[in-house]
Structure formats: structure tokens, C-alpha cells
Write the C-alpha cells for this entry.
Amino acid sequence: MITLPQRPFGSTGELLPVLGFGAGFANFAGFERSIETVRRARAAGLRYFDTSVMYRDGASQAILGEVLGSARAFVATKIGYFREARHFRSIEAMHVQLRENLRLLRRDRVDLLQVHEADWDNWWSDRTEVGFRRLFDPEGSFDFANAPVIQFLREAKARGLCRHIGVTGNHARHLGRVIREVDGLDAVLVAYNYTPLNVTAREHILPVAAAKGLAVVVAGLFTFIHSLPTGWATEGSYLGPRSDAQLAALKKLQQDCGLPAAELALRFVAADERLSIVLAGACQPVEVDQNLAAFFRGPLPADLHAAVEAIARQF
């Protein structure tokens, strides 16, 4: 087993390995192969495993449950999508979903329970229809601190169903407002907003998290480093108007330096010591090994880091 460097997990008093395992299984290789991949991650010394009811329709949680069960590991899951809009505002519905999460994970409690995509409007407003991935108005008026989902998180923690609570999202500006206005959280996870194409988490997440003692988890490092979705609606947060040029510049830089794109992204992001956990996804055991090898090569050389930084700041 490799000994990974550790960082404080916010103000919780815990120390955790910086590199975590993101169990989204984007390029799903099947249940058995995914189990092998998680086993490889655990054997290699990874302790932080991130999942959600949203990942592979719950199969991600079942895979982690099969491998980890009640074994010692830091398991983070999320309360996520509901088919009926009213359930986003129902504490009872959230508890029903949490019980199913725990059943799949084969655990009595999780280490971190989070809101899946707290930038969605449905969590904060009473709606008659589910607006899938509809963002709340960042300038609008919301009672974030007393919303049902925040009450649910606090209740779950008080009942011992989780040790820590947090929020997640894909839009740093929106998520930054939530963590500014909600007290008592332990962690914030932001995806796609700390990558070689977008570093807006530095502006909207890191200062607030530092002031409030929140652990910061980043994800989605590899999502856009190979291609951009056709006709992607950026909403001004995942990708910017220069994203095509950014990606072209990143590919040229990658070719010139000879490093794999995933290694460039991982080493660029992991160099920021303000981050508690850097999640790296893997669908095959060999990808776990590749992520570990890249991580242990340490920060990029100063000139290469500066070149990636110049690309990211074009957002």
C-alpha cells in the first residue's frame, strides 16, 4: 500500500489523503470491472470514495457497498434527483432516499452526506414541475439556511446517519452563494470549476470556504480535457466563449510537453494546497494506477504550470 500525503479535511479535525476516488464511472465498464477498480483503489491506499444516488442510477453506491461494506473508508454520498418536484422540498422523501443509499452502501451511516447539485433551483423553491438542471437565480431571494434540504442534513447528522454534511454543485458562483448563507456545513464539492479550462472555484469557493473552515473537494478534472460537447450550453460557468481555443491550446501544450492530458490536469490542480480532496475518476484498475503515478510526480515544473494557468485564465 502506498502512503499518500494527507491534508486537513476542513475544520473537522480529520486528516485524509489528498487523492480521492470519484465513483461516477463515466465510461462504465460493467459491474464486475468496476468492483475490481474500486478494490484496486482501496488496496493502493485511497480512503476517500465519492458517490451519489445519481451515478449509474444507484449502481455506483452498490459497487462501493460490495467492496467497502462496513470496512474503514471515508464514504461520501449525496441526496439527489427526485421525479416529483415536491420531493425536493420534503424532508420525509429525503430520509426515504437516504435509507436506500445506506442499504446499497451496506452501511449504518456515511462519513459525508451532501446535497447533489445545490445549484439546482428545485432545492430552494416550491415548484410544480422538475426543472432538470435548472439553476437558481444567483441574484434572487432564497432562504437557503432554512430550506428543507438543509434541515434534513442537520437532522441526519443529529441522528448519527452521517458524521459530516455538505453541498455540491457544478457552478462556482451559485455554490459560493449557498455556502456564504448556510452555517454548520463541513464541506463543499465543486465540479468542472477547477480544471485547466476553468479556475473560477478560486474566486467563488476558496475564500468563503477558508473563512468558514469548510473542506474543499474538487471534481470533474478530466471531463473536458479531450473534447467539448457539441452545442454545449455553458451557462457561463462550465465553459466560456473561448473554450474551443482553450482546448486547442491545451492539446498543443500536451503534445509539446509529452505528458498525458489527464496527468497535466491532475498535477495542475493538486498543486493547490487549499484543496482538501482532489477527486480522480477511474473505470479500470489501470486508470487508478495512472492517476496515482501522475499524482506522485508532484506539481508541474514552474514554466509548464504557468502555461496551463494562462490557458485556464482565458475563461
Q: What stands out?
A: The mean pLDDT is 95. The longest strand covers residues 162-169. The beta strands are 6-8, 15-17, 19-22, 48-50, 74-79, 110-115, 162-169, 187-191, 215-219, 277-281.
